């Protein structure tokens, strides 16, 4: 993947307009994450952890917190249950300063068990719970808030993604889509920004080669693609070409929140009219710092920490 000339990222989508306070609305999953630390996972054996952490989880919730820690005001649309997990999520959002647009549904709040090994590798077990009940009606109830947003972030796999994406398109706001689950191809036409990892790209396009997968994703109508490659860095693809950026060399402690932090970094760069290369560098920094700390929301960096990393 050869680098092309540095350029601005989809200027017609975000415009780089400075406001006194930028706003991003995040839509998707809100979970309670329960993290266990072990030396190494051995399948079929008993494991004992002396370090257990409860914290906010779910891609949309995590991105909303990561953005807030970078100085971007965020608000979260998600479904929770009327239970202690849902109450804990509401309290944590308030602590981080994220505007809560949650709806209580007749289901258990979603949660995730995360097992973190000593080399930073994580294994997750997810229970989606109330996240599956998220509907376009839940989202449209906050149309005023959506229309006042600079970017709308939505993760596939949360609720009825077909109805939700079709509704969001009617608002004519820039959409940043986290393609964590396979979606119908026609939904991707005219999507401004999309983020996904290598395996997600291959699954969605049914390709075996990542270059062909990127070509196919662009043919579906996505304007800007941010591809997460872990320790190999990241890639931006558009009809103007492909730009890649290497990862920062770190010793990972916990990789759980890296992808969320990367997406938040991309959104920050888009809102501040960074060049594509600068967006990738900034987002890679966000992900790298996150990997050097245990946990997820507690591991996300502040804007000062990102700017100091060289």
Which terms summarize this structure?
310 residues; alpha/beta; UDP-N-acetylmuramoyl-L-alanine:D-glutamate ligase; 13 strands; 33% helix; disordered N terminus
* Total strand segments: 13
Strand content bin: 15-25%
- The low-confidence runs, each spanning 5 or more residues with pLDDT under 50, are 1-6, 15-20
Taken from the alpha-carbon principal axes, the silhouette is globular
Helix content: 25-40%
The CATH architecture classification is: 3-Layer(aba) Sandwich
Distance between the termini: 24 Å
Over all CA atoms, what is the radius of gyration?
Answer: 18 Å
CATH topology: UDP-N-acetylmuramoyl-L-alanine:D-glutamate ligase
Which structural class should the secondary elements be placed in? alpha/beta
Q: What would CATH call the class?
A: Alpha Beta
CATH homologous superfamily classification: Ribokinase
- Strand arrangement across the biggest beta sheet: 5-4-1-8-9-10-11-12-13
Average pLDDT? 91
Order of helices and strands: HEEEHEHEEEHHEHEEHHEEEHHH
* Sheet of most strands: 9 strands, mixed
> What is the total number of structural domains?
1
Tally of helical segments: 11
Question: In words, what does this structure look like?
Answer:
It is a single chain. By secondary structure, the protein is of the alpha/beta class. It has a single domain, classed as UDP-N-acetylmuramoyl-L-alanine:D-glutamate ligase. Helix content is 33%, strand content 24%. It has eleven helices and 13 strands. The strands form two sheets. Strands 5-4-1-8-9-10-11-12-13 form a nine-stranded mixed beta sheet, sandwiched between helices. It has a four-stranded mixed beta sheet with strand order 3-2-6-7. Strand 12 (234-238) and strand 13 (241-245) form a beta hairpin. The two termini are 24 Å apart.
């Amino acid at each position: 993947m050869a680098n092309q000339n540095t350029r601005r990222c989809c200027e017609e989508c975000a415009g780089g307009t400075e406001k006194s306070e930028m706003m991003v609305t995040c839509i998707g999953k809100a979970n309670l994450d329960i993290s266990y630390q072990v030396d190494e996972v051995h399948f079929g054996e008993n494991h004992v952890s002396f370090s257990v952490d409860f914290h906010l989880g779910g891609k949309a919730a995590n991105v909303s917190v990561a953005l807030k820690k970078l100085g971007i005001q965020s608000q979260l649309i998600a479904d929770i249950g009327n239970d202690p997990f849902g109450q804990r999520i509401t309290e944590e959002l308030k602590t981080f300063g994220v505007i809560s647009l949650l709806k209580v549904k007749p289901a258990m709040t979603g949660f995730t068990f995360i097992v973190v090994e000593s080399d930073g590798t994580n294994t997750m077990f997810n229970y989606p719970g109330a996240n599956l009940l998220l509907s376009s009606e839940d989202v449209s109830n906050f149309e005023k808030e959506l229309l006042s947003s600079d970017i709308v972030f939505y993760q596939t796999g949360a609720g009825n993604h077909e109805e939700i994406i079709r509704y969001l398109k009617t608002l004519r706001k820039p959409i940043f889509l986290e393609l964590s689950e396979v979606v119908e191809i026609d939904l991707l036409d005219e999507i401004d920004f999309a983020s996904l990892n290598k395996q997600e790209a291959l699954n969605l396009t049914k390709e075996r080669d990542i270059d062909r997968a990127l070509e196919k994703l662009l043919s579906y109508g996505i304007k800007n693609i941010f591809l997460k490659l872990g320790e190999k860095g990241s890639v931006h693809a558009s009809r103007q070409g492909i730009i890649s950026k290497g990862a920062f060399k770190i010793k990972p402690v916990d990789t759980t929140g890296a992808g969320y932090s990367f997406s938040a970094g991309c959104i920050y760069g888009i809102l501040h009219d960074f060049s594509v290369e600068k967006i990738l560098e900034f987002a890679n920094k966000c992900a790298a710092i996150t990997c050097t700390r245990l946990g997820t929301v507690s591991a996300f960096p502040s804007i000062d920490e990102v700017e100091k990393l060289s």
